[in-house]
Amino acid sequence: METQTARFTIGQVVKHRIFPFRGVIFDVDPVFANTEEWWLSIPQAVRPRKDQPFYHLLAENAETEYVAYVSEQNLLADESGEPLRHPMIREVFAIGPDGSYRMRSEAAN
């Protein structure tokens, strides 16, 4: 399986292409690295390819906050500038004066 360069970076805010949630990236897998059971649980019509980067997000929608695992093909850059409310953000990231997210060195281990 050939890998490709990730389009998004750690600390970047992204949104899902189909579903109404957004989040900040805290880790990247160069190709699918979750369980086969998880992958097969996705309806075949919308199941992503495995040969692309997958991103771990501190994600949120209108109702709740959670951790999401999302394929690159299903993400778009979120240019809204709106801050995220996920309760784990301050544990993982330092927030810059411009609202940017920079991974804390102790969280990178």
Describe this structure in words.
It is a single chain. The chain is mainly beta and 109 residues long. It has helices at residues 36-40, 89-92; strands spanning 13-16, 22-29, 54-60, 65-71, 75-77, 93-95, 101-103. It is globular and about 40 Å long. The chain has a 5-stranded antiparallel sheet, with no helix packed on it. It has 2 helices and 7 strands. A hairpin with a 5-residue loop joins strand 1 (13-16) and strand 2. Residues 5-104 form the Hemimethylated DNA-binding domain. This is Heat shock protein HspQ.
Task: Summarize this structure as a short list of keywords or feature phrases.
7 strands, two-stranded antiparallel ribbon, 5-stranded antiparallel β-sheet, 109 residues, mainly beta, 8% helix, single chain
Taken as a percent bin, the fraction of beta residues is 25-35%
Find the structural class using helix and strand composition: mainly beta
Our count of domains comes out at: 1
**Cross-sheet strand order for the largest sheet:** 4-3-2-1-5
Helicity level: under 10%
Largest sheet: 5 strands, antiparallel
N to C succession of SSEs: EEHEEEHEE
Separation of the first and last Cα atoms: 27 Å
Radius of gyration: 14 Å
Shape by Cα distribution: globular
Low-confidence segments: none
Number of continuous helical runs: 2
The pLDDT mean sits at 93
Total strands: 7
